[in-house]
Amino acid sequence: MIPRYSIIAVAIAAWIGMSAASASALPAPDGEHAVGVVRAEFVDPSRPLDAGDRAGGPRRLPAIVWYPADAPAAGEPAAYLEDEVAATTLPAIARNFGYAEDELRPLATARMTVHPGVPPARHPHGFPVVVYSHGFFLYPEQNSVLASRLASHGYIVVSIAHPGDAADVRLEDGRVVATTIAGEGDDPRLADALKVLAGGPDLAVRRDALSVYADALPATRIGRSFADWRDDTVAVAGSILEGREPEAIRDVLAGADRGRLAFAGMSFGGATSATTCRLVDACRAAVNLDGQNFDPDLYDRSVGRPMLLMLSDWTRYGLLEGQPRDADFSPNDLAYEAWNDAGRDDDVVRVRLQGIRHMGFTDLAALLDDPKREERVGEIGGGEALAAIGDMVLAFLDTHLRDGDAADVDRAIERHPALVRHVPSRLRAWTTAQREAASDLP
After folding, report:
1. Rounded distance, CA 178 to CA 164, Å?
2. Can you give the three-state secondary structure of the chain, one letter per residue?
3. Distances (CA, A) of 308 to 103, 148, 206, 237, 270
4. Are the CB atoms for 156 and 68 separated by under 8 Å?
5. Is residue 184 very low, low, confident or very high in pLDDT (cuts 50, 70, 90)?
6. pLDDT given for residue 196 in this prediction
7. Alpha-carbon distance 38 to 250, whole Å?
């Protein structure tokens, strides 16, 4: 019997062979620069590729890099996914998320206004660098629209794969690292603690659950992945900051301002961005697209850097088990600021994007168009989702990496009726009640 993922791979190969004329184009970048794209592979010799297979060699992190280019190259728009990447990655996405073959066809045929391998542009002050991380079980091209838009506005975006936790990824030496679907021997206390953090009745029980969570995390799949992704992003940042980047992107990064660095990501990658930004001195800002915090050190504590947190519409769709659907509380209210200061740090921007599900924070918001679309990404239109995400991220990064006008963040919110600033008012009420109760003690 032929495995289902093999059948999907055959279908994908057929789709790839279709003419470009039948493929849909994703939104074109709107900045002053043309956009180049190139692939590279970072190597961290201090860690194994797979902790369970020491013979596999050092940790390798494939990357796709979008950058400001001198001039657009002639020819048709480039493929959203190169043929070899599509043949490796799309069957894994289908397997990981239970997608049907027809749902994935747009990923294999979509085109983008980017130009592989064209000469990079130069700027007297250099271009800021954004290190990007995909979501769990997803792929480094998943936010290509956002990355190419940032590049057109003068950013170098380095999106890395996290092998084992990504969709199947092919290394430069030809090996394919498959998604590791399940962990073994997880500490059962972690899941129970997460339920309490998401939906406990008050702050006291959440504080108790947090201590259990921190103790249980290291002995779980999530805990091991959290450590891997943290170390992956720190290693990539170190390579960039110290001028040890792969040869394939040396010319691109010759035009970088390595002192203006940000971390960004979606889902688990977004949560990782906050953790790594706090650890890397050169980091000026972090962007988290709907990632639940997993770092025990960032509950009831500030990141210490500007932070953009864009959240899916939990009032309609939810995200975590036991999460309330009330607009005044998100489980991430417990992270990124001290609880007593919740919502009072101007450097922490929290917004909810109405009508969007978790997976809508990827290019799938525009690429999926079938009866299950709302079930996958929400009811928001693909163009509106990508525009709102792009406007918010660009305004936020311009503010903190380019000393731009902070009011541009507010203007970005005003342009999109689906965007709502989130104020952690329930957490404020809990902490106020605690202070009042403490002041009444003799």
Report:
1. 6
2. CCCHHHHHHHHHHHHHCCCHHHCCECCCCCCCCEEEEEEEEEEEEEEEEECCEEEEEEEEEEEEEEEEECCCCCCCCEECCCHHHHHHHHHHHHHHHCCCHHHHHHHHHCEECCEECCCECCCCCCEEEEEEECCCCCCCCCCHHHHHHHHHCCCEEEEECCCCCCCCEECCCCCEECCCCCCCCCCCHHHHHHHHHHHCCCHHHHHHHHHHHHHHHHHCHHHHHHHHHHHHHHHHHHHHHCCCCCHHHHHHHCCEEEEEEEEEEECHHHHHHHHHHHHCCCEEEEEEECCCCCCHHHECCCCCCCEEEEECCCCCCCCCCCCCCCCCCCHHHHECCCHHHCCCCCCEEEEEECCECHHHHCCHHHHCCCCCHHHHHECCCHHHHHHHHHHHHHHHHHHHHCCCCCHHHHHHHHHCCCEEECCCHHHHHHHHHHHHHHHCCC
3. 31, 19, 24, 20, 10
4. yes
5. low
6. 93
7. 11
Q: Over the stretch 31-77, which tens digit does the pLDDT of each residue have?
A: 999 999 999 999 999 999 998 788 889 999 999 999 999 877 666 78
Burial class (CB in 10 A: 0-12, 13-18, 19+), 262: buried
CATH H superfamily, domain 30-81+114-173+224-439: Alpha/Beta hydrolase fold, catalytic domain (3.40.50.1820)
Q: Are 99 and 62 in contact (CB under 8 A)?
A: no
232-252 residues labelled b (16+ CB within 10 A) or e (exposed): bbbbbbebbbeeebbeebeeb
- The amino acid at residue 406 is A
Tokens 């991430």 -> residue: 332
pTM, full prediction = 0.93
d(CA 122, CA 154): 9
- Close Cβ partners of 196 (under 8 Å, ≥ 6 residues apart): 205, 206, 208, 209, 322
Q: What are phi and psi of 113, to 5 degrees?
A: -85, 70
Lowest mean pLDDT among 6-10, 94-98, 299-303, 350-354: 6-10
Q: Are 115 and 36 in contact (CB under 8 A)?
A: yes
Residue ranges per domain, the chain? 30-81+114-173+224-439
